[in-house]
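Figure 2 data, in text form.
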Amino acid sequence: MEHNINLNIHYTAPAQIWDKIGKVYSQMPYWDKNANFIF
């Protein structure tokens, strides 16, 4: 089963928002802990 998650945050959002986004995504059950994602 595939899950697509979209928080609909514009790419110009300030750094403090991107930090929160990273925390939200990393807590999702299908988060790939081995991937090197940059927010």
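Caption note: The chain has a mean pLDDT of 81.
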